[in-house]
């Protein structure tokens, strides 16, 4: 069988960079997965392609966009292994984004470099308040209404990276990695903060809130732009995301949780 995750990201305004997609197939010869998280238990081989390479979504291994692998040679890595369901229509021409691992590494390196430069400046506070300096800050935003992938943001000198991977059309896993707010010295390695698993589609009889960002095409301009955070109860700030400050292991972090107008009950395993 194949586990499929569609990685998608867009940028926080005013960054003009376009949307980007990449589709990742995880081929599991023994089809052994964790029923709660859809994580592969058996050794898996990776197969990846990007839609801008003209890949046949029904048979990615039939075109050159698929990374060479034994599964491509035998034609066993196909969407039909997922019940023939594409996760969502993909635009025909769109720039590719890196894999989650490379993507996260690039973000971390960029943030560490930025923090080192900022610490050398006597105008640190002005950097984050000046329009001149804040305009080119093109950090990545995850749109939970339309994506299954990665969100990273920089709030002052605090970095939190949010990974959201949709696997096998059954569950998605969310992982928060939060780095210490450092004003001197090197940024410490990220500590794993929280993992939560949300079953999808929801169980019979269970409904996600209509305006919850976990549902497709979620409008962010709701309730005057104030939603309660399902995780910490704080009020969100902008773009459907709360930006409340929490304390974890003696350090301040920005929670970065996605917020719902009404929190779904029974949907989170923390």
Compile the SSE list and pairings.
Layout lengths: L1 E10 L8 E8 L17 E5 L20 H5 L25 H20 L4 H6 L1 H4 L5 E2 L8 E6 L2 E10 L3 E8 L12 E9 L28 E2 L15 E4 L2 E4 L4 E2 L10
Brief summary of the model shown:
The chain has helices at about 70-75, 100-120, 125-130, 130-135, and strands at about 1-10, 20-25, 45-50, 140, 150-155, 160-165, 170-180, 190-200, 230, 245-250, 250-255, 260.
Structure commentary:
This protein is an alpha+beta fold. It has helices at 70-74, 100-119, 124-129, 131-134; strands spanning 2-11, 20-27, 45-49, 140-141, 150-155, 158-167, 171-178, 191-199, 228-229, 245-248, 251-254, 259-260. 30% of the residues are buried.
Spans of at least 5 consecutive residues whose pLDDT stays below 50 are: 1-13, 24-33, 40-58, 60-203, 205-270
- Global shape: globular
Please tally the β strands and state the result.
12
**Rg over alpha carbons:** 20 Å
Order of helices and strands: EEEHHHHEEEEEEEEE
Average pLDDT over all residues: 38
The helicity comes to: 10-25%
Strand order of the largest sheet: 3-2-1-4
Q: What oligomeric state do these chains adopt? A: single chain
Major sheet summary line: 4 strands, antiparallel
Provide a count of the helices: 4
Structural class: alpha+beta
Separation of the first and last Cα atoms? 28 Å
Strand content: 25-35%
List keywords for this structure.
alpha+beta; disordered N terminus; 270 residues; disordered C terminus
């Amino acid at each position: 069988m194949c586990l499929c995750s569609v990685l998608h990201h867009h940028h926080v305004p005013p960054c003009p960079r376009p949307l980007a997609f990449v589709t990742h197939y995880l081929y599991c010869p023994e089809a052994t997965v964790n029923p709660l998280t859809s994580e592969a238990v058996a050794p898996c081989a990776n197969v990846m392609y990007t839609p801008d390479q003209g890949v046949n979504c029904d048979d990615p291994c039939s075109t050159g966009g698929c990374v060479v692998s034994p599964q491509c040679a035998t034609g066993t890595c196909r969407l039909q292994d997922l019940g023939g369901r594409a996760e969502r229509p993909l635009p025909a021409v769109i720039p590719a984004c890196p894999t989650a691992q490379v993507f996260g590494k690039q973000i971390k390196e960029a943030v560490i470099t930025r923090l080192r430069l900022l610490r050398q400046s006597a105008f640190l506070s002005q950097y984050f308040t000046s329009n001149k300096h804040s305009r080119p800050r093109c950090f990545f935003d995850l749109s939970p209404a339309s994506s299954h992938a990665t969100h990273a943001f920089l709030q002052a000198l605090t970095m939190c990276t949010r990974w959201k991977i949709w696997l096998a059309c059954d569950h998605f896993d969310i992982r928060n990695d939060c780095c210490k707010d450092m004003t001197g010295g090197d940024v410490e390695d990220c500590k794993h903060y929280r993992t939560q698993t949300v079953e999808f589609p929801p169980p019979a009889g269970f409904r996600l809130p209509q305006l919850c960002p976990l549902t497709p095409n979620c409008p962010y301009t709701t309730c005057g732009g104030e939603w309660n955070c399902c995780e910490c109860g704080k009020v969100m700030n902008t773009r459907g995301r709360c930006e409340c400050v929490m304390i974890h292991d003696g350090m301040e972090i920005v929670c970065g949780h996605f917020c719902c107008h009404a929190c779904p009950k029974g949907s989170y395993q923390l």
